[in-house]
Amino acid sequence: MLLVASCIFYMFFIPSYILILLFTILIDYFAGILIENANGKRRKLFLIISIIANIGVLSIFKYYNFFVGNIEGLAGMMGWHPDIPLLNMVLPIGLSFHTFQAMSYTIEVYRGNQKPEKNILLYALYVMFYPQLVAGPIERPQNLLHQFKEEHLFDYDRIVSGLKLMLWGLFKKVVIADRCGAYVGNVFDYPYQHEGETLTFWFGLFFFAWQLYCDFSGYSDMAIGAAQVMGIKLMTNFKRPYLSKSIGEIWQRWHISLTSWFMDYVFRPLGGYRKGRDRGAINLLIFYFLSGLWHGAAWTFVICFFIFGAQLVFRLYFKKQINWVFGKLESKHNKRWNNILHTAVAFIMICIPFSFFRAHNLSDALFILKSLFNFGTEPLSIGNTSTFIYAVIGVLILYAVEIYQEYYSKSDALPEPKSGGLKIAFYSSIIIYILLTGVFDASQFIYFQF
Amino acid sequence: MQANSSISNSKTKFLKRILLLLAVLILLDQLVGIVMHKLYFSSTSGPEYETTYGFTKVNADVIITGSSKARRNYNTPLISDILKLSCYNAGHDGQSLLFSYAMTKMILSHHLPKMIVVEMFPEELYYKEVHYDRLNILLPYYSDYLEIREIANWRGTRNEDTLSFSYKLFPFNTEKIKLLSQSYRYNSMWLDLIKGIFKKQKTDSGYLPLNKTITESEKQKYVEEFELTLKQEHNRHIDPNKVKSLIGIINLCKQKGVEVVLVMSPVLKRYADDPVYKLIESISLSHNISFFDFTDDSRFINIEYFADNHMNKVGSTIFSSILSDKLKSVLH
Prior knowledge:
Chain A is mostly helical. Chain A is built from 19 helices and no strands. Chain A has helices at residues 2-11, 18-37, 40-77, 95-111, 120-128, 130-133, 141-149, 156-188, 198-229, 247-253, 256-267, 277-295, 299-317, 319-329, 335-351, 354-358, 362-371, 385-409, 420-437. In chain B, helix 4 packs parallel to helix 14.
């Protein structure tokens, strides 16, 4: 039943693309069984076949045009102008997510951490489970597969907390992300109209950071909540990253399922930090380069994530100096000030490279970066005041909730009244606020495109 | 046995809570809807008031409909002086032909003017998501004014491919479902309604002139950014709902004996090869109505007449004077 629902869900976008999923499902299903039954080099061979099939599909649909564009560009520089045909196809929705989830299956079977699944329908459900099919979290077979075989009895607390999580995810998406998105669009789609408006660009960047976070974590919350209602526990994908006190900590709390995927299957196998600082730095740069490429077939994504990697490498080499600077700025007595200082610096550091993530092209991104420090006579244009205020209110609510969760309740539960009657009034008010202030246009989730 | 009974109890508890939540939600939604309705329809200035005025009270002889270009480019007091007829500018910022159609339907339901001027911008007939988003302006009128329901409902089936797998499986108009909520009808409006209590913005003629003048480099930026937007708009296509709206406006006016004129006011740059011009021309010819295209009028190739991509007061005054002579010839 769940598999049928998942197939219908996927076919909502472009029905024929389900064949691509079926192709990789069949390859990985048989690869899992063959890996289990083979020895020595043959095990590796089946793993490689599975990985090539997955990466092959990803390369064709997501990266082919990007590679061709770059090859033509390089050839052009050498005076050669090949006319390589481009693919005129829409990218299958969530391709990077389910491909990575499928690859984690064969890798874990190869590593002996997971028994191959004999029931092809169950394996297909592992890849296609609809709440997380199009935008993650990218699950591991050890966490997910066995849950499909268990009986899930009706559990009031589990279902109610799943529904609350879904509601909070919806709030983050339509009340915060899409509201911020209106301001962001005005800045990033028409950057040259705002030349000299320094604060407009800073606000644009900050709003984009909140938009991206609320858009993606909002989807994750809805996916995790929906799965929870059905009795399936998916992994946590975000842990209030913007309350982190360093950029390193942000990446431990941001898109955890992807970060841990690259940690487990790329960074650690390359040696991680074990082979010394220099090798660790190179591994970090590879890690973030691949993360950028995973996000999109464009240099803007690659550069954005490469900068994130470079920030971490800088921290690796200059930790003492960074601590010395912070030591000068920190207060001896006011711990709250120190927390705010570290959180604000980490947030700003993460925001700046986002200009590459959101800009339409490299020249726009560079113009935006330059504009952050280009002080004109009219520093801020708010655009539509109401849109701006709705977004600010949304962001304030976000921080109020997350600060409560992080420092007071130390849990992911929403702050809510204790009594049952008030609780119902509280959640009804949230729904009414969503209806009054949410953006209900045809905007999509940003991460669906990946 | 005990486990079964405990599950059954928690199912009952769950059902009770859900029903209670629904009851409170419906009650709260109705309450908020009533408050918002009061606030909305008691406003005496601002865009909400102007829409209500246009929809229910306007009684001018000549009415201009359209977007922000209508509001900025058409100097209604001047047109009124030249034509010796009362004139009202019912243009609305950010709107399109879809709104003009709603406005025309509403006006003609309570008043028969001598002429309706439909301002159109060159990209008017192309599909644009945002034009459907902005139709939320119609939602407060949804229950009381049946004339605009069809247009408001287009929000739910905008660009929907009725042959698609998803539409065949779930052929729902999502807007109709959302409109079950009273609060949703005032979505994104509460802040403006509160602001409206304190800030009065009122024009008697609907005309909102701009006083600044664009520079050459600013013009260049507008043109470049517009061209970039065009490049980014893949699958640019003529919107059948907009064509329907245009023909709807024409037919409605003809049925009621109201003169209708299509006008394209001057623009910063004209894209001569755009097929939309031919389409509008052929619609105006086949319906035997006047279409005045000023987008390639050499008299307006002058940045002194523009504030941004709208005309400024100087430009709009010159344009309105020339247009009035043409309208006069149509009226006589």
